[in-house]
Specification:
InterPro entries: Calponin-like (IPR050606), Calponin_repeat (IPR000557), CH_dom (IPR001715), CH_dom_sf (IPR036872), SM22_calponin (IPR003096). The chain is an all-alpha fold. The protein has a domain at 7-136: Actin-binding Protein, T-fimbrin, domain 1. 46% of the residues lie in helices and 0% in strands. The protein has helices spanning 11-21, 25-39, 49-56, 60-69, 83-99, 110-114, 119-132, 155-161. Helix 4 (60-69) packs parallel to helix 5.
Length: 188
Amino acid sequence: MANNRAAKSGFAAEAQRKVNAKYSEELAHESLEWVASITNEAINTAGDMDNFYEVLKDGTLLCNLVNCIKADTIKKINKTTMAFKCMENINAFLEAARELGVPAQETFQTVDLWERQNLNSVVICLQSLGRKAGNYGKPSIGPKEAEKQERQWSEEKLKAGQTIIGLQMGSNKGANQSGINFGNTRHM
């Protein structure tokens, strides 16, 4: 747990301060309110880091959340507070979140929550899961996900696009090779 670690100093402390500075109390509060509404559990939804950590640290609420979104996703939820059992809960949540469609880059490591290393990544994961919950008929949070819009182009239109030089490539108007002397040496 977080209180079993030695205090960080030097570069490690500075790096931890930068990680903690990214944490958003508003997003954490929104996430906890969403969790409470989905699970129907009375939890403290204050967005400060201490409360956020205390509410989620054992992983049982996270496992209940996933099971409320999609029934029987997590078969066994450990109710004990033993460290490795709590980390099993968190890991089961992470696997279930990926299964429900949360991209791997928006998940977190088990130690980010259990050892309170990066609570911002936990908020990001909950926000991402909140967007995916709409796919399962549950209330969602955050911006709505984009819908796929396929376009069909004619062969003529595709060939017409090959003749255009994009602006990112620059312009070739007035271009010539004068003044280029690759391979030439200076003659004296």
